């Protein structure tokens, strides 16, 4: 298991915050892992040790949570929601949504409508 210095924890927290604020654009870990504090490989290891997932998995999780909120709260088209959470391709958004949520975005929205209306 990789050792965690305070500088490692601080850097991983910066990565997490960047993901949460810039999830639409995504991130380039190379911005953070310049080899002075951590290498790219070490950054991924320490991030996973702290947060239980890789930075890429965390980005996917944040995007899916934002997409679910948008599906629940408004009638935006699925394509627009995919774009709002950082996907340029509708097919990629739907594929990633199904992979993580085990239903399509429309099925998810319909479940939310059914629950809200008591069905």
Automatic annotation (TrEMBL):
Residues 13-111 form the HTH araC/xylS-type domain. InterPro entries: Homeodomain-like_sf (IPR009057), HTH_AraC (IPR018060). GO terms for molecular function: DNA-binding transcription factor activity; sequence-specific DNA binding. The keyword Flavoprotein does not apply. The keyword Nucleus does not apply. Keywords: DNA-binding, Transcription, Transcription regulation. Gene3D superfamilies: Homeodomain-like. This is Transcriptional regulator, AraC family. It comes from Chitinophaga rupis.
